[in-house]
Design goal:
Enolase-like_C_sf; glycolysis; alpha/beta; Enolase_N; 18 helices; lyase; eight-stranded mixed barrel; 601 residues; three-stranded antiparallel β-sheet; disordered C terminus
Length: 601
Amino acid sequence: MEADTDVRLRREAAEYYRAHRVPQRMEEALNALFPLRPADLYGELANYFSKFSRAPVVCKLAGRKVLDGVGQPTLEVEIYCTVKNYEKRICSAIISSHYQIPENAFSEATEADERERNDSVTTAVEWVNESLSAMLRDLKPTDQCEIDKMLGEYFSKKVEEKKEVEKEEEEEDTLSITSCIPSAVAQSGQKKEAKPGKKSSTEITIPPAEPSESVLCGSLAIGGTSLAIAKAGASINHVPLYLHIALLKRSQDSPKEMTLPLPMVTLLSYEKLSPAKLKLMKEVMLIPPVQLSLKQQLSPQLADSKKGRAHNKEKKASPPALNGVSHLGCLITGCDNLEQPLLLIQTACNNIGLELGTDMYLAINCAAHELMDYVKGKYEILTGTFRSPDEMVDMYVELVNKFPSIIALVDPLRKEDRQQWNNMCCALGSKCYLIAEDAATNSSKLKTDHNINIPMCSGVVLKYVNQTKVSDLIELTGLLDGQRRITILGSPDGESSDDSLVDLAVGLGARFVKLGGLSRGERVTKYNRLLAIEEELAKNRTLRYDADFEFTDFAEESQPEKQQPEVLPPLQQDSAPSQPSVPALQGHSMPAQLLESSTLT
């Protein structure tokens, strides 16, 4: 009886292995490896047979609360896959918080933000560990589009659930008010009708601000999971994340060459609530020339010239008062007029042998939406100094003409001032990038029937926050490319140490990447990642440098016969005042030494 059982088991085993072609593949493996005589024979056998193993599939997600670069809670998503019959942790991703971080804020507002942030992260952790983990089980991490579609449907369902709850609560409140205080409502209505001919002193004559899109509690789970899946797919395919993203955007068509986005390096930040007068410039950023590699752009030897050493012999002067380092990784200071920070940087560049407009360019993040006084209907650019939207356009034209090294203005106007955006594009579009950032914070509002729902501009800053998915960025950048608009990937205020943003920027073909200053670990790690990608592309001989900056002449675009963008020639600074009202600064390299130049004592 035992002999019959043994024979039966041997027969079943032989049939099982033949059905899976094990004897044939074993023979092929032995024949292929014998001429090589590898030192680690079993290792090579394992590598050989791994080609025939099943593709890894998701077995679970793990979400947990972690801290971002400023010590605030945010979400980390881990991906676990079944690999060769074993559960294995593949990767993790940390998504940056969407919450803005004011330099000065009231304690009540700060406490409310902290409660909202904690609730959002806690809800996101629950979504990841429960619903999303079960929903994505047994799916391949390489199926990014399918998984993103499922994540989008899940999020839409949560939005509808929230609307139903809010509708029920609103109906209950309405019934309660109607039944309890009908007379008060009637009296209130009569009071509002008094003096119908009187004109309100607070009447707003400008387009009102569009209502901000509410952020669904827990939405971090969608963006965090999508990014983690992309990183897992890259790991399983044994390619870097930036190449995985590029393949997704190009439908698996491997690019022969890739370009690096130019960094917008934040050097100075001006607080809106500081005692100094200047409010307009939230960030003053440096843009290196396209002809240099990133390593050369950030190298301390960049400014090591005879001209720079000659300037270093000059007497050092006292800089303006500094208030420390911002969460953006740059110096915080204050100025009393628009030209002072530009002359400050111009002097610093001269002291280290660099020429603005040739060796380095400027970009200004105006953050104009934060400056609007809706009572006056004007922007407060300096303390007590207000400008209408039309006057803002004239001011920018004058500023760029006087400082032609300025090649980018970010959020120079509110997105609601569309006519002024059009006027400014026609006046400055041929010499300066006019970029929308505030209008592009929520990606769900950007796309409308294969179009981009933003004012006329040169490009937009995209941020990977909340429910944004990798597929959303791929689709949006494709639309921007088709409309000849540039893409800038930007880091939000609540940045984390995850450096995936750089890979996204490279893979999506972004023109610039806005990472903040060369300080704080969560920001410097992204510059280091950009350097590593450059070295890898150069080693593989797939790195390509753009010829020069290209701007769009919006005024000529209206004429069919003139559609070509204008190529920026080497800029020469207009002659500055012989004695600028800023102190002389000293330094040795750029941009790190410009930071040092601004902190001399």
